[in-house]
Amino acid sequence: MGSVRWAFRCGTWTPSRSEWLFAARCVQREEKDRIGQFVFARDAKSAMAGRLLLRKLVHDRVGIPWSEIRLDRSPRGKPYLAAPLKVGTDSVPEPPSWSFNLSHQGEYAVLAAEQGMQVGVDIMKITMPGSSSVPEFFRIMTRQFTAYEWSVIQSSGLEHQQLAAFYRHWALKESFIKAIGTGLGFNLQRVEFHLPPEPLSQKCALRQTKMLLDEEEEGDWVFEESLLDADHHVAVALGPADHAGSSRLRPSPPPPPPPPTSFTLLSFSDLIASASPLTEEDPACWDSFKMKAEAPQRQRETRASE
To answer: SS3 of 185, please?
Structure first.
């Protein structure tokens, strides 16, 4: 079985012209066009990093040449590998397929992938509510958590600790929703998380968190939790691959996943180490991105002169 946990710090990535143009050549044309439609540079960078992370995974772990990788999206927008490589024969069984998922928020884009299991990943940055107090923010979000979860969140200490507990629970719920592919129609109060007393760490992932689904413990699901830094929490949901998407997830127990692994922080050089261009260079891609990147500075200068 295989397991991959990668992170890329796109928030502090300031691509040069040559880097951005090369990255744009190494993703599918429709994805390049989609990235170009983002209004903000930070969103374009996160999307570009996500596509490169996916293609690196398929190339490095599945063994498909970069130029032959074809990624499509499900009706709910979840990326998947189209026409996966068939390596099984009559005498050699095909190995378990890879499941992968992306998330980006705050400073990072992350990818989690698992062989033979369904996977969902979510990253959350601890941030203060923009236009309301913490108690008002929690009141607005009341329906997203159970009474037990709210008791844990609101008894976590000062407001920053409460927000950290809030985003930790939120990341866990999102990782599960993304793993089963249900989307916005799922009632988040159906799932309840019980956290272990051990603190989260950047060095290793915890795997003691338990989930209740409709008030019954789901022993077939495993949740990994870790920190990328003091403000970014990541949750990975691992479940039975061949029952993904069902409303009740009670198949025969899957084989245990490999030991939890922490996220490896990749550089841009790592992202493109195995990349090969798919299209010709398009200078307009850089012109569009540069305008997005410079827009915040122009806005600050305008406000300063007023």
So the answer is: helix
